[in-house]
Each structure stands twice: as C-alpha cells, then as structure tokens.
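for the writeup, i need someone to sanity check this before i put it in the appendix. the sequnce is what the collaborator sent (i think, or maybe the updated version? ugh). structure was predicted straight from it, no edits. if anything looks off just tell me and ill rerun, i have time this weekend
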Amino acid sequence: MSTFISPSELMINSDGSVFHLHLRPEQLADTVILVGDPDRSTLIASHFDRIESSTASREFRSHTGTLNGVRLTVLSTGIGCDNIDIVMTELDALANVDFETRRVKPLPERRSLRIVRLGTSGALQEDIPFGAMIMATVSGGLDGLLNFYADRARVCNRELEEAFVRQTRWEERWATPYFVPNDPELVERFSDVAIRGLTLSAPGFFGPQGRVVRLPLMRADYIETIRRFEHEGLRVTNFEMESSAIAGLAALLGHRALTLCTVIVQRAAGDSRPDYAPFVQRMIETALEKLTL
C-alpha cells in the first residue's frame, strides 16, 4: 500500500477540493490549458460549447467544460514558477491521489494529463516577429525549482545544460539551469502553426530577463550571451516565466506538457506591443482547434 500523505503535506478543503486551486477531483478534465491571467481563463472558456463548473481562489480561476465533444479544464496560474509548483502538484494530486484515503492511487487507476500552457513572451532573436507563436521543444529553467526534486536528472538534458553553462559563463551564485524536452506528440501536433524553439523561464520579469530600468545588471553581457547561445542547432528563442516548471514537473509526474507563447515583445529590436489582444485571440483559437478537432 502507498504511503499515507498527511494533511500538512497535501491540504484538502472541507468541501473536498484541493487547497489552492479549489478544484475537486471530478472537476478536472484530462486535457488542461494553463494561462497566467485569470481573465484569459474566462476568455478561453467562452469558446466552450458547455461549461460544467467554475472555481475561483486567489489568482487560480478555472472552468471545466466541453468543446467539440472534448472535455477541457482551463486554469489560470498567476505569474512565476513558484505558482507552477503549486498548480502542477495539486493537478497531479487531483488526478492521482485518493482524497478519501490520502494515498496515491494504484498504477492502473492513475491519469496522465495533457497540459498546454498558452502564454505571452519576449522574442530574443531578431528574425522572430510580433504575433509569432513559439512552441517550446525544450524548456530551460533559470528559476532553480526542479533542483529541489529527486530524479531531476532523469528528465533533464544534461548535455544541453552543460553547454549552456559553459557558453554563457554562468555565475555560480545563480541557480543551476535545467533543460527539459516538451512532449513530442504535442510538439508534433502544433508543428505546422508555431516556431520551434528553446524557451527560457526566468525567476523575474526585469533583471532575470536582462531588463534594465534603474538597477544595473550584475553582468552587462548577460542577455547577449544568452542570445548567442547555440547547441546542435538549438538556440534560445524567447523568455517567459513558467514553461520550465511545467515541463519538468509534468515529466517527473508522468504527464505530457507543451508551452505555446505569442510574441508581444521584441528584445532585439527594443520594442513591444502592449495591445496584443488580437495575437492572443489567434493563439487561443488555434490551440482549441488543435486540441479538440
């Protein structure tokens, strides 16, 4: 029998929902769309043919329903890999922990979720235009989150990690980077509508992504060394803040994940598109079609 998971390790609300997400196990679909913005989760759900449940707690807003006969859950995560640690762990618990006994379900009863993040990002390479959709064939984490978990090496590309550390002259005081491949079936599913790339997740929006407002960076060449990085034809295409934790935790927990981002900032050109709603709408429509038809 599996180990008992105590209430201090996995908190369950009195209504049977998981602590942060306020979802009950029966409210979780096998296909999950993750977005950062709570309003974007509602926007996506407006495309559903039917909504069966909706929840809201802090930045975590969810809707579960059906589109073209496919059951979907869309969930907002807020910003950052720390929030993804909560989201991915609680999604897996909803799928694979018996909330009555507080034990992991036996293998035949476990679910493997299909998880797709729809986000926005900044392109690092000058040949990637505004509105382009980038899918992470590999997600790189500068956040350090996956380093807290055992078996990290089982899902990471160590050769890529070593090349990145060497080429960028990575500082020892920074978190050790990790690189996780996204699910190959999902990559193939979106291959005709998105640019393949290496998406980096940073632990912040400004300094960790090489932005300078008032505070100077520790290394002035930080962003340029990342832009120049290349390993076996793979280059860093874009920066965002969640992809690495999604890919890493999904791989460790037995789920399938992909991050798809729309470009709203062009770092090489020093320009941005604050009115990016049409780009996001196109990404949403494309993703829903790919996931339900």
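The domain at 25-292 is CATH 3.40.50.1580 (Rossmann fold). The chain has a mean pLDDT of 97.
thx in advance!!
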